[in-house]
Amino acid sequence: MQILQVDLDNVKSYTSASIPFTPGINAICGENGAGKSTLLEAIGFALFGHAPFMPQSQIVREGEKTATITVH
Length: 72
Description:
The protein has one helix at about 35-50, and strands at about 5-10, 15-20, 70. By secondary structure, it is α+β, with helices and mostly antiparallel strands.
């Protein structure tokens, strides 16, 4: 399986984001609190139906009712 892009809407710190991936190995870099772990947890949740380090109720951005994670 190759992940080409991840789209996040109302997921924790992300209001709306599309993160593209390139073929091969990709590095996820950023400052503390930038959302690196959230991105990995969202991919795990979308592919496997659970996020081991985050209860499902905490995936939705504070103040929102729903969240969407799309893995291409």
